[in-house]
Amino acid sequence: MKIYTKTGDKGTTALFGGTRVPKHHIRIESYGTIDELNSHLGMLRDQKIDEHSHKIILEIQERLFTIGSILATDPAKATLKSGKQRLEIPRISAEDIELLEQEMDKMNEELPPMTHFVLPGGHQTVSVCHIARCVCRRAERLASALHDLEPFEKEVLKYLNRLSDYLFVLARKLSHDLQAEEIQWIPKKGS
């Protein structure tokens, strides 16, 4: 497979189904940010983390490829003339969302209660997780804006919302596991 095609030299790219759009189109921004998030999760997975978290992150990365595929498909061409779906891949399911919720519940059982916001940082691994969380929030904002213009499965938005929460709890768990200092944000009193 040839990597360069030269078809994007004029600032457009093709969606699944062949529709060409500008490279700055919100659909491209949406799935491009999902790709960026997936790369950050790859960097997180490359850190020294527990095997269970490693496995869950790998599963999340696979779901992000599904989301990217959904976002990269022109809704007008999502269904073929035969009635068959253009994308023959498993969709984001309620079970995918429940997995993230169950994982958060398990992690929260081991963590001290949160009484304040926490400052990102404390250890490189924790910081990588917080960066992934922030990119996830951006991906969610872009996907939400795209959904307003051209609706797609609502489970995608739910999954991204849950995923950013999961990454926050995972960052706290990693702080705990790595015995990193978790610095609370306590606003200074005005003078």
What is the H-and-E element order?
EEHHHHH
- Amount of helix: 55-70%
Report the sheet with the most strands, covering strand number, pairing sense and barrel closure. Answer: 2 strands, antiparallel
Annotation, overall tally of beta strands: 2
C-alpha end-to-end distance: 65 Å
Summing up helix and strand content along with how strands pair, one would put the structural category as mainly alpha
Rg (C-alpha, Å): 19 Å
Number of helices: 5
Share in β-strands: under 5%
Kindly summarize this structure in a few lines:
The protein is mainly α and 191 residues long. Helices cover 57% and strands 3% of the residues. A hairpin with a 5-residue loop joins strand 1 and strand 2.
Can you characterise this structure?
- The structure is a single chain.
- It contains five helices and two strands; from the N terminus they run ββααααα.
- By secondary structure, it is mainly α.
- It is elongated.
Q: How do the strands and helices of this protein lay out in sequence?
A:
Elements: E1 12-14, E2 20-22, H1 26-45, H2 51-71, H3 94-110, H4 124-149, H5 154-177
Antiparallel strand pairs: 1-2
Helix pairs in contact: 1-2, 1-4, 3-5, 4-5
Which features does this protein show?
191 residues; mainly alpha; 5 helices; elongated
